[in-house]
User: Fold these one by one.
Assistant:
Number 1:
Amino acid sequence: YDELIRTHTGDRATLEMMGSELDEARRQQRDEQHRKLLFQGASYVWGAQARAIVKMAAVIPGDKPGYMNFATISGFVDFRRLRPDVTWTMAKRDSSNDDGSEMPSARWYPLDQSGPTDAPPLLTEFCSQPIPELQRIETTREIRYVLPAGEIGNTGALTCLIGMVQKDLPMFRTPENSYGTHSARCEVPAELMNVDMFCHQSLPFTHQPEVTLHSNVGEYAYSKDGQELPFNERVKDLGVSSVPPPAPEIPRYRQLMESFFEMIGYPIGEFHGYRVKIPYPAYPTALVMGYPLLEP
């Protein structure tokens, strides 16, 4: 055994990590243990953390034939700075083709149409008070909403949720796109990430999405082609129900979901739902849900 360590790893801890894929029974538990260590280290290095990351999304019929819309709510519950000089991107939206190039046809709009058009698309009813002040930064590729530096620890903790809808996503395959993908990024070290994806029943090709975990570093930040990472969490099939599924770790989650479906204009009973819940998600990664587009 000592010779095996000397030859292949140099120490026992590294050997156990290399052999973790061989132990099916304990793999998920071991994954979580290592991710918790990553959460603690990343919180220290980056100077920020959150109790929970919220990702809620729905694929709905588009405003014109042959297209779909994609409505989202995302944000952080109990986000805390650990250093006063820390600024943080609270939400980021982008659109890209299969090869990672820009998709100019798909545009993002505020989910809540009742708010000011020039303000960040915050869901103020579900944000902490005072309402977080965010700076909008837009480029040809993405929109980001950035929280400035501020108070640290629990006294500076805040909850920030943003709602947007992406319109005019192609339903049929094109030379640029054969696959529909939606990324739920782990955007801050967090204790939990809860991802709920709902697919309208009139779009059956979006059902049973393939779920993979990818690197979200550098050049791969805009592409599902980032290195695929081990993913052993369960994808829970929520089925079709008129009752929002509970998420006790997230305050007022049922009210948030009811408000979400009211804003998109469809009852929850018309959707098939899927959930992925990840304790201590690895930062920075992207959970990708995808499905093949229809043939023309």
Number 2:
Amino acid sequence: RLAWGDVAACHSPLGLGVARGLYAKHKLDVELYPFTSNGQTVIQALATGKADAGAGLIGDWLKPLEQGFDVKLFVGSHGGCGRLFASAKSGVKDLKDLKGKTIATFVMGASPQTVLQVSIAKAGLDPNTDVNWKTTPFDLVGETVARGDADVAAHLDPWAWAIEKKFNLTKIADTQSGAYQNHTCCVLGANGPFYKANKDALRRLAEANIEVHEYTANHPDEVARWYAETLKPAGLTERDLTEILGSLVYHDHPIGQPLIDQIRITAEELKLVKVLEPSTDPKAFAERVTVNLLA
């Protein structure tokens, strides 16, 4: 069973892969477990045995893995689904303008807040003391900025894209440019016991994952059509979804040593913003939680 965020447009290639028989082509019998519709995270889905493997944000994986959660990361999917955007009246034009400003987000200690802290830190600000973070309900992040109760918003696509359009906000950072150029933001992980017993199946799942995301990079309109017709996301048209999927970096799906290197770099960055412990060795950590299926 493969856990996926069914309400997240960036996960739509996984659903298309099942519907079009791509996984079956790799001799895999994949059943999708929609963790978001079941009120869970990918971590919870794997921890409770509802799924054997799953797709999740790199910024959400690493802290639980540091704490000892038994999951092995094995292939990246894409980059670019987190955004930071500002209202015109905030006066914020770039990351350096964030000093003293209030950022609305729906969660603290998880993506997009954790990873976008890195962008803020690399702009020379302290994301813990130079900005104010304000938590607000998931569906009200955009309204909070529009009302003037916050200057900037941090959110994930497709909601970030919709908020930016609806309230005429300006994107000042995302997870595919700047500090995140050439980085993956979503990664597949497998339960430790499942990995040990099914290494060949996971290798084939990784191959299928790369294939379906490459297909999405070249045919975002087809994937958007499937997603719109199958899941009917509220407030998003097929054209909207095509634009969203077309803007993501679906060519970025590292495996093997390149993935280990990206996990190491992300661990270094999350230490920088005090998400990971000072005692964590990024290189040793990356080598512990990431497996090289090509070795």
